[in-house]
Automatic annotation (TrEMBL):
Compartment(s) of residence: Cell membrane
Mode of membrane association: Multi-pass membrane protein
Gene assigned in the entry: emrE
Keyword rRNA-binding assigned: no
Name by which UniProt lists this protein: Methyl viologen resistance protein C
Native organism: Chryseobacterium indoltheticum
GO cellular component: plasma membrane
C-alpha cells in the first residue's frame, strides 16, 4: 500500500512540474524553472520507491494516465486551454486501458 502512496505523490509532483514547465516559458523564468526541476526530481525519486514493488510498466501506466488527466485539468483551469472531443475520447481510452490492466492483468498483481 505504501508503494501506491509513493506513486500518488510521484504523480502529484510530476503534474506540478509539468505545470511549471509551461509557466517557465522555455526556462526564461528562474523561479518557475527551479520549481519545475525540484518537483520533477521529487517525482522521479518517489517513483523509484514505488517501483520497488509495483511493476514498472504498471506504475508508469498509472503515472501517465493520472498525470494526463491532472495536467489536462490544470490546462483547462489555469491556462484556459480546452480539449476537443477526440482529445477527451483519447484520454478516456487511456484511463480505460489503465483500469483494464489493474483489474484483469496478472502483471499488475504483485
Amino acid at each position: 500500500m505504501k508503494n501506491y502512496i509513493f506513486l500518488a505523490f510521484a504523480i502529484l509532483f510530476e503534474s506540478v512540474a509539468t505545470s511549471f514547465l509551461k509557466a517557465s516559458e522555455g526556462f526564461t523564468k528562474p523561479l518557475q524553472s527551479v520549481i519545475f526541476v525540484v518537483a520533477m526530481s521529487a517525482s522521479f525519486y518517489l517513483l523509484t520507491h514505488a517501483i520497488k514493488v509495483i511493476p514498472i510498466g504498471i506504475a508508469y501506466a498509472i503515472w501517465s494516465a493520472v498525470g494526463i488527466v491532472l495536467i489536462s485539468l490544470v490546462g483547462y483551469f489555469v491556462y484556459k486551454q480546452t480539449l476537443d472531443l477526440p482529445a477527451i475520447l483519447g484520454i478516456l481510452l487511456i484511463i480505460i486501458g489503465v483500469v483494464i490492466i489493474n483489474i484483469f492483468s496478472k502483471s499488475a498483481s504483485h
